[in-house]
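User: For a reading group we're discussing how well predicted structures match intuition. Take AraC family transcriptional regulator. Before you show the prediction, I'll give you the sequence so everyone sees exactly what went in.
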Amino acid sequence: MSIMVRAGGIRAYAAVMQGLGADPGPFLRRHHIAPQALDDDDALLDLGAVAHLLEASSAETGCGDLGLRIAENQDIGILGKLGVIIQSAATGLEAFQIASRYIFVHSQGLALTINPHSEAIEGAVEIVFEIRPPQRQNVDLSLGLAHRFASALLGVHYDLKLVTLPHTPVASPSRYRRFFGAPVTANQERAALHVGAASLRAELRGVNPALRQITEDYLSRHFRVPGDATSTRVRLALRRMLGTPQATMEGIAAMLAIHPRTLHRRLQAEGTGFEAIKESLRQELALQYLRETKVSLGQVSGLLGFPEQSAFTRSSRRWFGKTPSAIRKEARSSQLDTAQAPSSVRD
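Assistant: Thanks. Here is the predicted 3D structure of AraC family transcriptional regulator, as C-alpha cells, for the group to look at:
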C-alpha cells in the first residue's frame, strides 16, 4: 500500500519552480502527479512520488535548497483541519503534542516524538521527526515547515536552539543558518528541532477550546491514529535500536512490554511481520546513509545491524540491484552536477 500525503504539503512547489525559471508541469507528469492536483490541498498524493519529484527538481534546477524554499512560501493553513487544532493549543508544547498525535492526517510518512530533555542542548526539548522517505529535500521541507509553524505560533516566545539534520546538505551551511536562525549540524542520528523548554511552556493567545474540541472530535471519528498500531510502535522502536543487540523480535518485544508470541500475532493481524518491518526500515535508512551522508560503508553496515559489510553488500544487491559503493558513486555524481549549476539558480 502506498504512503500518501496531502497535496497541501507542496502547495508552493509550482510557484517556486517557476521562480527558478523551470516549468513544473513536465516534472509533475514525469512523476505521475497531475498538475491540477496541487490546486486541492486535500488531494492525496503518493509520498514516494513526491519525494522523488523534489529530488529530481532540486538536481535538475541546481537548487540545493528547494525544500527550504517551498517551506518558506507556505503557512500552517496547508494543514487544513489539523492546523485549526494546532492553533488552538494553550502552549507551544501542547501544539507539538497535538501535531504528534494527528500529523498522520496530513502525511502518513511523518511521525513526531517529543523528548523532554535534549541530549545536545541543556534546557531544551528535542522534537524528533521520523520522515519517510528520508530523502534530503523531503527532510528539509518537513523540518522547514515545522520551524515556520512554530515560529508563527509562538512568536516572540519561540526559542530554537539547534537543528540537527540526518544528511549532508547540498545547499551551503549559511543558507540553513539564515533560514532557521539557529545553529544547524549535519550528519546527525536524527532530524530534530531543539527548542528552549521555557518557550514551549509560554501561554499562547487566541485559544478557542470549543473550536478545538469540535475539530479534534472530527479527526478522532474519521481517522484512526496510526501510533496505536503495533507495527508503528515496532518501527519506531527498531529505528532507535537498529545496529544494537536489542534489534531483535525478543528485544523489541521487551521494550514494548509484550510477549514475543503476542507481538508476532498482532503484527500478523496487521498484515505484516517483524522481519518485514526491519527489512523495510533497513532499505530506507541504507539509501539515506548512502545518498545523503558521508558515513563510511563499514559504518553504514554497522548502523543497519549487519554482522559484516559483505552481508550489507549482498542485501543491497537484492534490494536495489546495485552495490552500496555504486549507489554512493551515483549520488555523488548527481551532487557534483548540482554544485556546478549556475549560482543564480541555487541562491
